[in-house]
Amino acid sequence: LNTKSKVNGKIKKNGYYGPVVWTANNYRTGELVDIPSHVKLTKGDTIITSGFSNDFPAGVLIGTIKDFHLNEGSNFFTITINFTVNYKTLSHVYIVKSLLKEEQDKLEALNPSDD
């Protein structure tokens, strides 16, 4: 967990995505932000990695929606999520090295996206 780290998360049931951030309030929860206000949300919806970065492959479970709200004047939800992993008890992790990362970085540099 790092307050400067952002992971691109996606709501599994509908494909809407945005950054998942840790607010340092609680090691068990984070926030999924920048989800438009017209999106239908339900507590318990699954949040997974989007695959839009080189850091995490698509489809890795991040957590589930705990709560959500719209700030006054905002068109985007702030969504509190319960992380699937208890980071206080985590003792073993796997680090997966992408054998195609260098090639992917070169291709992305040739065609930068707006994201």
Structural class call reads mainly beta
| End-to-end distance | 23 Å
The proportion of residues in beta strands is 35-45%
Oligomer: single chain
Share of helical residues: under 10%
Number of strands: 6
Q: Which parts are unreliable, with pLDDT below 50 for 5 consecutive residues or more?
A: none
Rounded Rg: 15 Å
Mean pLDDT: 88
- Tell me about the biggest sheet? 6 strands, antiparallel, barrel
Helix tally?
A: 1
SSE string, helices as H and strands as E: EEEEEEH
Shape: globular
Write out the strand line-up for the largest beta sheet, numbering strands in chain order: 1-2-3-6-5-4
Question: Could you give the topology of this structure?
Answer:
Blueprint: E1 6-11, E2 17-21, E3 29-36, E4 46-49, E5 61-70, E6 76-83, H1 101-110
Antiparallel strand pairs: 1-2, 1-4, 2-3, 3-6, 4-5, 5-6
